[in-house]
Amino acid sequence: MRNGRRRFLQGSAAVMAAGLLPGCGSPPDPAVPGVAVVHDPDKPLPWINWAGNQYCNPAQRVAPDAEAAVVEAMKQSRGTVRAVGASHSFTPLVPTDDTLIATDLLSGLIDYDSQSLQAELWAGTRLHDLGPLLAKVGQALPNMPDVDRFSLAGALANSAHATGAGFGSMSTQISALTLATPGGDLLRCSATENPELFQAARVSLGALGIVTRVRLQNVKSFNLTETNRVEYTEDVLDDLERRVEVHRHFEFLPLPNSDLAATVSTDLAKPGDISQGEDDPEALNKLRSLFDNISWLPGAGRVYDWLLKRTLADEATTTRTGPSYRIFAHPRLVRFREMEYIVPAEAGPACLREILHTIRERGIPTCFPLEYRTVAADDIWLSMFEGRPSVAIAVHQFGDLDHRSYFEQIEPIFWKYEGRPHWAKLHTLDTERLAALYPRHWKEFHAVRESIDPQGKMLNPYLKHLFGVA
What we know:
globular, Vanillyl-alcohol Oxidase, Chain A, domain 3, Uridine Diphospho-n-acetylenolpyruvylglucosamine Reductase, domain 2, alpha+beta
């Protein structure tokens, strides 16, 4: 939810302070599927992802600081090899108990071209470093995810995206890349060099090797102004087509068990634009406290919705303005688990309405905002956006609560609307169902994968499950 809602926060705190709410917030569930790793000093140091739901104990860890070192690591590696960037995938794409290769030291700007507005960067560069690096040479990403902790290679491998009907995922911004293959070769890939491998490598889940450098097609540096409001979800849906068309970027965050949503409209900054209002990093936690503290009441959902409307419905607009990379990014201070599916754009409103209705009808106890974003179609083989303008709808649960029942009840709704799961987000689909969602290029991708990695060196158990490899 967009922060800076001071009257809501003060109002909910006052309700609790007055003793109207007993303060019986939900404690962490001991059955939550997460990490409970006890490190044995005589064994390898465990790897744990950001969300705390994936881990492994790699026998060998490598952190190459040059391309030649990556190639050597691939040649010398034992067993299954997986690359790791910023560890932000919720799915077990990374875990291996054999060889883990970290790309942290492959970071920074390699070169750039002021005429073509292209720049080549090391693949381990974090997105929060990428913006300032490009700004120094007068360039910027045309669009960027609101989480800027990802590594560049990780974001591309999983088709990370932002919002905006005129913009594809980050993978559409690649003009060339260099791949260290499982056999120890270093291959340059683009639309003209190794074109089939390029198509497969733009969204590969790390199954083809390790990307060492990426050349991006950028734009000139620019400023943005972001406008945040709290509105009624149905009002937003009724006006959705217009908003998606008139704003450079538009997204909204429906509040489950409520009729309200936070809306975010972002456009090119105009002269005189100024920031108004402040973010409160604790807003989401305070929203949770309010929800938890009324959960014991009969009709708690209606009470919760009433309180939100009393305190949020007429909140003033807040704005942020500045360099694009600062406005695109938003801090994520609360750990959570996430499931996100990408559905055809025309199915988005119906899919969202059914999710919100299901949450209320079944009394699913959640207050973590959903996300609704638009993304342009592309032609990348395993991109979730391949062949169709799309809407990405995400559901979340706090990291210390059990997400399983909630996600299990919502996931079939996505299937009903031909949803494709985000590769880095939690889902339950297997090879057969995934192949049906990618009818045009599933076989082509795997033909390329098998040709470059016939021994399956890059496949951990999860990837074997996704790809149907014995």
